[in-house]
């Protein structure tokens, strides 16, 4: 087993520090998360990067960092630190730009997490290491990495169109495509030695990208389950909590405007102090 690379370790530590700060400081969290309106209207482009270091909870953080660790061990030593750094951040930004395009008409859409960057590492590994296999935690089952990649792409395309599970499939798909394209640039020979899996991954991905640019109405799919079932991801929980806190704050401020601060109960004063941090 390869030891963890210095850059991978640094990225995990950086993600941990920023996530800790964000989970304990809502203002910090809100300032650096991905937000369509803030990026497109206020030109706050740093969010395309900073949002990738925030996570909604420690489970979200652990899942992304474990995947980062598993797929970075051979990759960092094979391509070197500078190229690994380019791959990581290009995939992160690429995934977020794709999400920005998909949700450009949803000004309140927000997101967080390193999923785009991690997906880029996964797809680059699939391209650069043809014989690679992917195992499942706690299960002695392994499948070819390329088969996982194809299934991942098809599921992401379906997820973007149906919007059934509220997972940020567009970030995963965008980051993954960028990662695979960078892998091809780094080692063009894989187009001959590993051409079939790469073609099977790229053709549906690029075709889908072309169609949504030329015919965006294809994204509109009636989902029979959307009105009866809603599954929340960590990003959705963050958005829901944010809206709930804002509603609480608005109610307290409205009471102050009507009756004055002295009319607040002790519980309301404590809540006001908490929400104002």
UniProtKB/TrEMBL annotation:
From its record, what is one biological process in GO terms? proteolysis
Give me the segments passing through the membrane: 79-102, 109-128, 134-155, 167-186, 192-213
GO terms assigned for molecular function: serine-type endopeptidase activity
* Organism from which the protein derives: Winogradskyella thalassocola
Q: Which PANTHER family does the UniProt record give?
A: PRESENILIN-ASSOCIATED RHOMBOID-LIKE PROTEIN, MITOCHONDRIAL (PTHR43731:SF14), RHOMBOID PROTEASE (PTHR43731)
Specify the protein name. Membrane associated serine protease, rhomboid family
Family of this protein: Belongs to the peptidase S54 family.
Cellular compartments annotated: Membrane
| GO annotations of cellular component type | membrane
Q: Primary place of residence? A: membrane
All residue ranges annotated as the Peptidase S54 rhomboid domain in the record: 44-186
Q: How does it sit in the membrane?
A: Multi-pass membrane protein
Keyword terms = Hydrolase, Membrane, Protease, Transmembrane, Transmembrane helix
Domain (DUF6576) ranges: 233-277
């Amino acid at each position: 087993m390869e030891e963890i690379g210095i850059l991978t370790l640094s990225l995990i530590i950086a993600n941990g520090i920023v996530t800790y700060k964000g989970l304990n400081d809502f203002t910090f969290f809100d300032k650096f998360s991905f937000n369509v309106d803030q990026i497109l209207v206020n030109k706050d482009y740093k969010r395309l990067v900073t949002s990738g270091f925030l996570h909604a909870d420690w489970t979200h953080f652990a899942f992304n960092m474990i995947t980062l660790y598993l797929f970075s061990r051979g990759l960092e030593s094979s391509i070197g630190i500078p190229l690994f750094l380019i791959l990581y951040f290009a995939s992160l930004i690429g995934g977020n730009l794709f999400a920005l395009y998909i949700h450009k008409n949803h000004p309140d859409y927000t997101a967080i997490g390193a999923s785009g960057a991690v997906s880029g590492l996964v797809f680059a590994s699939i391209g650069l290491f043809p014989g690679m296999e992917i195992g499942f935690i706690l299960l002695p089952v392994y499948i070819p990495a390329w088969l996982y990649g194809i299934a991942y792409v098809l599921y992401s395309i379906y997820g973007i169109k149906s919007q059934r599970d509220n997972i940020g499939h567009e970030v995963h798909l965008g980051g993954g495509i960028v990662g695979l394209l960078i892998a091809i640039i780094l080692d063009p020979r894989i187009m001959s030695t590993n051409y079939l899996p790469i073609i099977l991954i790229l053709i549906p991905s690029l075709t889908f990208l072309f169609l949504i640019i030329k015919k965006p109405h294809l994204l509109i799919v009636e989902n029979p389950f959307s009105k009866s079932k809603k599954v929340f991801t960590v990003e959705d929980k963050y958005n829901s909590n944010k809206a709930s806190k804002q509603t609480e704050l608005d109610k307290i401020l409205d009471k102050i405007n009507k009756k004055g601060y002295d009319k607040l109960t002790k519980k309301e004063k404590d809540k006001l102090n908490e929400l104002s941090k």
